[in-house]
Amino acid sequence: MMEREIFRKILGRLRKDELRPVLQEWGHLGKRLHEIDFSHSKHSVHSYVVKGFMKNYPNGHPDAVGKLDLLCLQKHSAKRTWAVYHLKKEQDSPPNDVADPKEFEQRLRRELGVDFKKMELCVLQHEKALWVRICISKGSKTKPMLKNATYCVHFPHTPVLIVTNMKAATAESIKQAFVNVLGYCDIQDIRLTGRCVKSLAQLSLNKYSQGSFSQYRLNQVDLQPLSHGKKRKRTESEESITDPRIVFVNQKEKKQRLEILNDTFGPNPQPTLEKIEYKLETKFHGNHYAPGMRNQTGPFHCRVKFEGTSVIEGIKNLGKTELAVVPLPDHLAKVHSLAKNHFVLQDKSKANKSVQDSQT
Amino acid sequence: MDVVLIDDFIDPYHHLQLLESRVQKEADEKANEKREHQEVERLKVKVQKLRAKKAWLEQQLKQQHAKVLTDLDGDDNSLPDMGPQELVQLVAETQKKKFEELIQAYRLTGITVTTPEPDITRVCWDTAHKGTLCEPYYMEIQHKETLRILRHSLPYFVPLETVSQTLLNTDFKKFVASMSEYLAAYVNRRQEIVMLQEKYSDILIGEVESSHAADFVQFQLKLQPESEQIVEAKLTYEQLTDILPTKVRIKVLLGNSANASDVIVNTQDIKHYKECFHSMELTKAVGEIID
Questions:
Q1: Which pTM value belongs to this model?
Q2: B257 vs A30, A206, A224: nearest CB
Q3: ipTM of this predicted complex?
């Protein structure tokens, strides 16, 4: 009975049009999938699915719940907040990475089995990455609960791990298991969080090819040596105002500003980040607006948060719409290449110390 | 009475000698004249030839300019109407086009090194697979006291950090060659998967699954349409510089689903399949298996 409820809960996360492809990929219904009429209500379809599964597996199946949960998460990963971790390797240590999902699952099960007697583990390959679901039960006799599931995304041959919903009680064990399986010596939170797994991966894996250099990564610059003709340069569409009474007096400055922004951010869409947070520990610089603060000698502690659907794109637009002075300061202009969205800004005299802090 | 000079009477030999020398002198003069005349004739002929060559070259030049103009703007008759400044500009454009073609030809070597800024070197690796050019990869390196990688578009799974720590500042040539090896192997593995998908789509069941680095490949084949047998192959490439798989796992299944129970039909066949995958590139191995 419990399993039926779990199935209904998982299937309830999917839209009606997503049910058939997900169930096909799940593969636990077999030929019974074709007997389901998807034009019925969602509740009816869920009932048919559960009945069909129970008929195929009267005693249940150990991996069925985990696999279905993971497939549903892949469709709606943006509903959760993910955090990026960086695995550290000892110099000269041999690589121990594995790209085979089954082998990875076996190794991880062996490592986690040392600390946890009862758990559900599922590893699937999706969009060239290994998606992992780890569900650990609190006691040895209770079944693992859906809400305790931790989800991880790992890109083989990289030291990057993207995690969501890691409970405090099991966090250390799970992190240590990944460190051991992949042959690293330590794991560190790099203070990069967001809802879009693809963007987080892009920011952490391609941090040396963001901004204008993204054109080289996406092969938008040079043609192949044996082809003729020139590659058409992407030009941003300009506002087309055809009213002859309107005269633009600052076209030259506008063009210059757009050129600087293009050099900084590039012509391609920016990775999606929902939040960038700056913790300021600098002296107060607004004495002109707040004369009462003139006598303040110590650092002025302040937190500035940019939030939105795509904050990096928003920062670019600040420059475009003249709300920010161009060229933008480094802590705004280089955000796409820093692989983090939580920053601490300090005065220059403490700059070296802050670099050390961010690296440790 | 004739006056006879005593000298002439006394020395007829001297007179004869004088006559002889006079004749010789005249003969020499005549010979010189003849030689000069011949030389002049020869020079006249040479001048004529040179004039003819000059006329021919002028004609050729006119035709070349017309051809360049045709290439640039399709107008055969623009040369006579163009001023000297325009001609100079056209020649400059033609030279620029020639330099661009030279750079393209340089790229055919596979590794191109340029200097976009005074202290920055850009390396471009052009990849190819079986005679077809694929995408290029770039790296910008700053050279001040030591070499430092500023930006790159290499795939994230290439162990750039490890290789650069050992080779970047010690043996730059070896570093560039090492990166070239990783990229060539990756493109080779990836393109083999693409070719397999295109060439054998009728016997493949579903899509070929692979990691981003193409170092793990998994697919299912239905070798005979009338049979229920499915061959499932998993290939693993231990090193990212490998072109042939180091580990091959073959399963022969019965049924349309991968969840069907394993059935080993013929161990000889499986051994043969494994040998094919170990010794040949992917599409060639599948072709061999089908045959």
A1: 0.79
A2: A30
A3: 0.85
